[in-house]
Amino acid sequence: MSNVAETVAFWIDNNYRDDRLNRDAGTRARIVADRIADIETRGDAFISRHDSKDGQVKVLRRSELGCMTSNSAGRTTLYY
Q: To the nearest whole percent, how much of the chain has pLDDT over 70?
């Protein structure tokens, strides 16, 4: 898996509501692939407030891709 794919998957896993991410077989893989395609074509990817764990819109921009970690509070941090 590429660094971009790993980063997007990490971002999805940490920000997407579990009940929406794991609906049917293949849902997570499809969502990750769709967000990677969004970054490649538009330069960013979104998670709607309905789909995010905290009810806030999440945005991942191409310029922010890098190493991500999650702290004890569940917040995702980007390191460049």
A: 79
Structure tokens of 76? Answer: 């995702």
What's the pLDDT at 65?
79
Q: Is 9:32 a contact under the CB 8 Å cutoff? A: yes
Residues near 47 by beta carbon (within 8 Å), at least 6 away in sequence: 12, 15, 16, 57, 58
The whole-model pTM stands at: 0.75
Question: Which two tokens mark 62?
Answer: 């191409």
Residues 6+ positions from 49 with CB-CB distance below 8 Å: 55, 56, 57
Q: Are 60 and 44 in contact (CB under 8 A)?
A: yes
Assess contact for 27 and 12: CB atoms under 8 A. no
